[in-house]
Design a protein that fits this description.
homodimer; about 375 residues; alpha/beta; Rossmann fold; about 15% strand
């Protein structure tokens, strides 16, 4: 087991969570080959940093890749990787399952995370499934209704009064002292779990572009590492171009990328409807920035109006996603990609979790007696 | 294409929706064999009454079968068929996709359904995906927030003022006149789509019992027909015992079964938290009753308290379902099954759709300064 800091290059023999330079660490590239198997965990058995505890899997991963007719509007061949059909209805389950497998094997009795949304629900659910206790640190302002979808799984939900932004590092520090394994947004095992998205895409097609809603940078790094491992192992002939997509109202990575800076800076006063990707100081921001430059990839930011429009376009094709999950489609409008290229956009989480922000359609009334007329009208 | 009334035996050469005797019709048993393929539609290609329009599939079906440790508490081997990870997060998508495939091929431009919940969302979504218009007839009392998750897909949501109970037959009658294809709860194509649940279960194990939340009877009949076709085609050695599960507050089928009646009667003043299975006069009630008697199967009703407890037990294993979807586990408590038998319980829909009814867990507060103590406490 060897981890490396992608920024300063320092290596570690144990699964630390961060490099001493403050940046994230990651497992070195794995070598291996795919097998025949029902689940993604089995088919890519060689590529995980810890043996997946399949007995506690909830069937995460192996999500559909749906061909979208929206591609026609943009002159590309568009495919949607629908991560909203994971066990707790977001991509987080892939990372949570793998990080939980490690926590169990390493002997932890309690795990934790810092999140109010998808990741909170995911960690709460899998902790119960694995028979571990969970401490879910949520922000002061999180609504009771939203937290119900987290606490229902049995994890202890803790509203932290104070600067929520400090919690990422604070939780790792305290967790290490107290023997609580925090699996935050870019935890090294979590990142490895997200590789499955790249593996599954590659089983079906070789994309030219992959659009990735980007907040902490964990998902982006996971998908990138997945494609890199496929490439380095000779399983695909070339790397797709990965595009990090952020909301204009909170786009620290895109801003630093555009301005040619080596490091991201905190994005002051973040404001966007895409709350799931509204991290103002992403812990993997510099690592993502480095990947974008190294491989000539891209970063695109989209406005709330563009996000709303994309969310509606997706719903009108049968896929109801969170605002954050629609950013990839919103980006398509701006990217002006070459005619006919193959594009995959990752739909990260279910719209049911953010029902309040959903674009409402038309609702009419009709007395039973005149139903015939109501059905006839178009 | 041949359909038959399971009650009076009359046959039809065209896909009518109901027999002239008022009962549902169903396709005769299909003959065939399974193939190797990625999706359930391809693997069981011989068994569908219409060619599935795979180009418009959203990846419905092929849901995980999750081994549950709850089995230990009841002395059985328990597996959960997690239908909450379908594209609109309920089992309805399987039936909707197949019925929509028929509607498209038959040349309909508009489809409809009578539902306020899972089926409404499913038909709204797939109609948009297939490029058809949808008329979704909902009850007067349905809340705006709940309907958002339906209208977002683009279907026209119509609040019908008047006796909602009359709408099932009224919509079929008007639909036929106006050329609107209504795919209600026990539409014959819908039933065929649900067979996939049985097929997928049989690919993994041979259950002794299958627990099925039962409202209109459509899901029950579909799963039953799936196992019957497997059996008649020599693909399984014996039939599992199917158990229809209803809520005590609305259990017309269990009541008629227990009282030895040949026909169900309307259940007056239905009242249960399991709203997705609260049909007081199920259109396939008599057909289900006949199946139960013919094969020596069973019907169990469970109280709201038992449902709540089961919902919590499932959430504490990582699966957050609607109250209706927890009835199978609630039934386990009452069934007193033989030691060690293999039981599959079908989890029909996501708990996110009924968040208000979810059992809330503990939420505490903690100032950032004392976080260490909050993390330490158990």
């Amino acid at each position: 087991m060897k981890l490396r800091c992608p920024i300063c290059g320092r290596t570690y023999e144990k699964p630390v969570q961060r490099c001493s330079c403050g940046e994230p660490v990651e497992f070195e590239l794995f070598e291996g080959e795919p097998y025949i198997g029902k689940g993604v965990w089995e088919r890519f058995w060689d590529f995980w940093p810890v043996e997946p505890v399949l007995e506690f899997s909830l069937g995460e991963g192996d999500t559909p890749l749906v061909k979208s007719r929206l591609g026609g509007e943009f002159g590309v061949r568009l495919y949607l990787k629908n991560e909203t059909v994971n066990p707790t209805w977001s991509f987080k389950d892939r990372g949570t399952f793998l990080a939980m497998s490690y926590a169990l094997k390493a002997g932890y009795k309690t795990v934790g995370t810092v999140s109010t949304g998808n990741m909170a629900a995911s960690v709460s659910a899998y902790a119960s499934r694995f028979g571990l206790k969970a401490k879910i640190l949520v922000s002061e302002s999180a609504g009771d209704e939203k937290l119900k979808a987290v606490s229902v799984y049995g994890g202890e939900v803790i509203r932290v009064l104070g600067d929520y932004g400090r919690l990422y590092f604070e939780s790792l520090k305290l967790g290490e002292k107290l023997g609580v394994y925090f699996m935050n947004s870019d935890n090294p095992f979590r990142i490895e779990g997200y590789k499955g998205i790249a593996f599954e895409i590659a089983e079906e097609l070789t994309p030219d572009y992959v659009l990735i809603p980007t907040s902490s940078g964990g998902l982006f790094r996971g998908v990138a590492k997945g494609f890199l491992e496929l490439y380095e192992n000779g399983l695909i002939d070339g790397l797709p171009k990965l595009i990090a997509v952020q909301a204009e109202g909170c786009s620290p990575i895109c801003r630093a990328f555009k301005e040619g800076k080596a490091k991201i800076e905190r994005f002051e006063n973040p404001k966007t409807i895409a709350k799931a990707i509204a991290n103002p100081y992403p812990p993997s921001g510099n690592a993502v920035l480095k990947l974008l430059r190294e491989f000539g990839w891209g970063c695109v930011s989209v406005s709330d109006n563009e996000i709303r429009k994309a969310q509606e376009m997706l719903a009108r094709e049968g896929l109801f996603v969170q605002p954050a999950s629609a950013t990839g489609i919103a980006a398509l409008e701006k990217l002006d990609l070459p005619e006919g290229v193959k594009v995959v956009s990752i739909l990260t989480g279910s719209g049911l979790r953010t029902l309040k922000d959903a674009p409402a359609g038309e609702i009419t009334e009709c007395p039973l007696e005149t139903l015939k007329d109501c059905l006839r009208s178009t």
